[in-house]
Amino acid sequence: MSRYTERARTGQDRAGLYAEITDKIIAELEAGRAPWVQPWGTIAAKAPLSMPKNASTQRCYTGINVLILWGAVIEHGFAGQSWLTFRQALSLGGHVRKGERGTIVVYADRFTPDDERRRAAEVGEEAQAIPFLKRFTVFNTAQCEGLPDQITATAPPVETDLVLPQAEALIRATGVDFRIGGERAFYDPRHDFVRVPPPQAYFEPINWHRTALHEISHASGHPSRLNRDLTGSFGSKKYASEELIAEISAAYLCASLGIAPTVRHADYIGAWLEVLREDNRAIVRAASAASKAADYILGFRSDTAGAAPAAVAHDGMQAA
Description:
This protein has helices spanning about 5-30, 65-75, 85-90, 115-125, 150, 165-175, 205-220, 235-255, 270-280, 280-300; strands at about 55, 80-85, 95, 105-110, 130-140, 145, 175-180, 185-190, 195. The chain is an alpha/beta fold. The protein has two domains: about 5-150, no CATH class; about 165-305, no CATH class. A four-stranded mixed β-sheet has the order 1-2-5-4. A three-stranded mixed β-sheet has the order 7-9-8, covered by helices on one side. Strands 3-6 form a two-stranded antiparallel ribbon. Helix 1 runs antiparallel to helix 9 (about 270-280), helix 7 crosses helix 8 (about 235-255) and helix 8 packs across helix 10 (about 280-300). Mean pLDDT is about 85; it is low at about 1-10, about 155-165 and about 305-320.
């Protein structure tokens, strides 16, 4: 197979996958549901609130895979957020039950074939990397048998109606100029500060933290941090895209801190649908940027003190 044919097939595979993921997200939004907000703590959700992770490597999934796996947990009523490949289940002494259907997660990267390196060296050009896409089928540990007890143990439910001190501590630790007051929440990119009304202004105190994490997610995009494009004016596609990133980042942050995520800006759903319908890669890019933002912010947690927070490179499709 020539490198051109290989690239064409890989491109077609990627395009089909982007369309498949985007169509599913659009269907959820059209039904009035945000895929990054699940009914944690209700009868519809048997699993506790947490970020999905690989039970073998203990690595949390990132980017679009978080939305895919959260959706699968709710759809199938799984009791936990831990996942394994077929081979990983075998390596741990267990197996996937016969007849179980897995969930597809994805990993994307680039590589440079040896023949391309040689060709480039001969003509004095830079070698061209070829993007590749891998699909992995994973199974929830609830779909497996014979696994060690420590693998199948489910974390106890997290109390979500209390103000969590670690959330406030994280906000302070980021060093963002965070001001409490006024009647509306916003991030000012020009002067680099966040303003959020006092907790007393919220009917439920936990919503203060959800709002604060949303605005801190915006602040992560400042040029001195992750350097996202924050120039979009209200009502523009750039503005809608940044709001989508902050929404998903806040959901990831909430899940990491034991706070049930919620939609902060449901009135933007129409704008998000417009963006997704025009570009079937937009949701993947937004989920990727949201993972980078959440990882950057969580890098300031006291339990990771001493390690400088860094922008982790996510393709938005990484599988642990």
